[in-house]
Amino acid sequence: MFGRKPQKTNSQTVVSVVAASLRRDIAFGDLAPDSKLKIEALRSRYGGSNHSVREALTQLASEGLVEATAQRGFRVASATQADLQDIIKLRAELEPLALKWSLQNSDIAWEGRLVAALHATERATESLLQDPDGAVMMWDEAARELHQEAVSACGSPRMIRVLGQLYDQSRRFRLAALREGRCDPRELSRLRSGMVAAILAKDADTATEHLIRDIRHELDASQARGNGNT
Questions:
Q1: 76, 95, 127: which is the final residue of a domain?
Q2: Pair (66, 101) in one structural domain
Q3: Residue 56 near residue 19 (C-beta atoms within 8 A)
Q4: Domain coverage including residue 36
Q5: Are residues 119 and 211 in the same domain?
Q6: Cα-Cα-Cα-Cα dihedral of 205, 209, 210, 213, to 10°?
Q7: CA 161 to CA 32: how far, in whole Å?
């Protein structure tokens, strides 16, 4: 019937579950950067068939979390300082542009979703401060939803997709910075609150300033650590 959302097959569900587990373990560093990803070992670890594991790896390759070569198979994507700088540079250029487009298309419904997403990040930040280990993924997912909502009215599905992938690619760095005390959840919460307040006030310049500071937070922290070590 037209308009009915297609149902996932069992095979697609398994692929989604395996991909989610891989994505989480890459984010937490349980699967180290540049490490080889062997199908048999992953199947034993996550379940599913060889085919479903391969499909999950192919999906993560399209997201930039895994690299695939014909000769060497799959491996976790690298996570160097240069990788982080590249990701942040792209996000800091593209995301403000997408926010600008969203502001041009803004309506009450979008503003309401943005406020709701902000409230979710604030609750997630409170949970993170109370339970740093148990709430970390909820905290980062809430932030992802806020960033995605901020650009959701931009009118470009391709831009939205790319920005989502870049956010996911930066997650490993962000969670590492959080574990090492270089990422300040309270400061990020203030920046996000300021961004949404500026959006509601139609103050594009202030909203963009807060957004860029949010995006650059883990890069600035990383550079500060590097300067401290010299």
A1: 76
A2: no
A3: yes
A4: 10-76
A5: yes
A6: 170
A7: 25
Whether residue 1 lies inside any domain: the answer is: no
How many angstroms separate the CA atoms of 41 and 36, rounded?
10
- The number of C-alpha atoms within 13 Å of 190 and in the hemisphere containing its C-beta is 5
CATH code assigned at 181: 1.20.120.530
Q: Radius of gyration over alpha carbons of the chain, in Å?
A: 19
4: in domain: no
213/105 same-domain check:
yes
Residues 141 and 103 in one domain: yes
**From first to last of its 230 residues, what are the pLDDT tens digits of the chain?**
334 444 455 667 889 999 999 999 999 999 999 999 999 999 999 998 999 999 999 999 999 999 998 777 899 999 999 999 999 999 999 999 999 999 999 999 999 999 999 999 999 999 999 999 899 999 999 999 999 999 999 999 999 999 999 999 999 999 999 988 889 999 999 999 999 999 999 999 999 999 999 999 977 766 655 554 43
Predicted confidence at residue 89, as pLDDT, reads: 96
Residues 6+ apart with CB under 8 A from 212: 92, 96
User: Cβ distance 64 to 169 under 8 Å?
Assistant: yes
Residues in CB range of 145: below 8 A, 6 or more apart: 117, 120, 121
